[in-house]
Automatic annotation (TrEMBL):
Membrane topology according to the record: Multi-pass membrane protein
Gene3D superfamilies per the UniProt record, alphabetical: 1.10.3730.20
Region of interest (Disordered), residue spans: 292-315
Protein name: EamA family transporter
Length: 315
């Protein structure tokens, strides 16, 4: 297996990260056009209808797909879409969501018996400080409920990561595509219950160009292109070579939120965002260094996977 990306694959990895970073601004556009839970449900419907006929399930059992789909689709994206609709700036959402790395690590240690290196502990501690700083600034740069629901989305993402790890070896693209069969019904039910039949009916019978663009972007760019390319790269290169490109997602999210909606977080939130990105970078680099030592003949203790290595590295 090659350890360095070719120029073409480097460009593809960067394009995926940019697409995922811009995804948060697109979500903000979409939740302004239709109810957020309905939008989340339709996103998965479109992806499944387009991709499932061409991507086999490859024997992944439904007993595994259902809990992963609920955690990822209903939990992660349901909470995230609602959070942005309730005042969480898209750029900060892209950054705060990365606290999933901390949750994933703690859950992997607790439930999978994985261990941490000192460098990874330092990196995660820096990220937690960044999240705390953003949390202290809520009410100015973000709403309290938006911030809390983004944290809930990150916790749901971490849950799906751990469930995926327990599944073991599975085709990444098949897992991504077939988990999209799970969220539409519970998300639609939640939309009818909390957003109301009238709002759902109006959105479905009177579609807008903004809503159509959002669905197309989420399905084609973020999911099919993004995950398709990402999983292809993970199949060609070590995860520790591909994973660091996911660090581009938060800064791209902050920049696109500023350019498209004029989002200008206060200084504490910006400093906190920088700490989150720096902490995840330290954790990733520590993991990458450890992997390099392993290839040279060392046998390290097992440790939790860094950000971006999971099958669902972004919104």
């Amino acid at each position: 297996m090659a350890t360095r990306l070719t120029a073409r694959d480097t460009v593809l990895a960067v394009l995926v990260a940019i697409g995922w970073g811009a995804n948060f601004a697109v979500i903000r556009l979409g939740v302004g056009e239709m109810p957020p839970l309905l939008l989340a449900s339709l996103r998965f419907v479109v992806v499944f209808l387009i991709a499932a006929p061409f991507v086999p399930r490859r024997g992944i059992p439904w007993r595994s797909l259902i809990p992963i789909g609920l955690a990822m689709g209903v939990g992660q994206f349901g909470f995230l879409f609602v959070a942005i609709s309730l005042g969480m700036p898209s750029g900060l959402a892209a950054t705060v969501l990365q606290v999933q790395v901390v949750f994933t690590t703690l859950m992997a240690v607790a439930f999978l018996g994985e261990r941490l290196s000192p460098k990874r502990i330092v990196g995660l501690a820096i990220a937690v400080c960044g999240i705390a700083l953003i949390g202290l600034d809520i009410g100015t740069s973000a709403t309290v409920v938006g911030f809390v629901m983004t944290i809930a989305a990150a916790l749901s993402w971490a849950t799906s990561n751990v469930l995926t790890r327990r599944l073991g070896e599975a085709n990444g693209l098949s897992l991504v595509v077939w988990t999209t069969a799970v969220p539409p019904i519970p998300l639609m039910a939640a939309s009818l219950l909390f957003e109301g039949p009238d709002a759902v009916g109006t959105a479905l019978t009177h579609p807008t160009w903004g809503g159509a663009f959002t669905l197309a972007y989420l399905a084609l760019v973020s999911t099919i292109f993004g995950y398709g390319v990402w999983n292809t790269l993970l199949g060609k290169y070590p995860a520790s070579t591909v994973a660091p490109f996911s660090l581009l997602v938060p800064p791209v999210g902050l920049i696109t939120g500023w350019l498209t909606f004029g989002e200008t977080p206060d200084a504490p939130s910006l400093i906190g965002a920088g700490l989150v990105i720096a902490g995840i970078a330290v954790a990733n680099l520590a993991f990458r260094h450890r992997r390099q030592r392993t290839t040279q003949g060392d046998t390290p203790e097992p440790e939790a996977t860094p950000a971006g290595v999971s099958a669902q590295p972004s919104a």
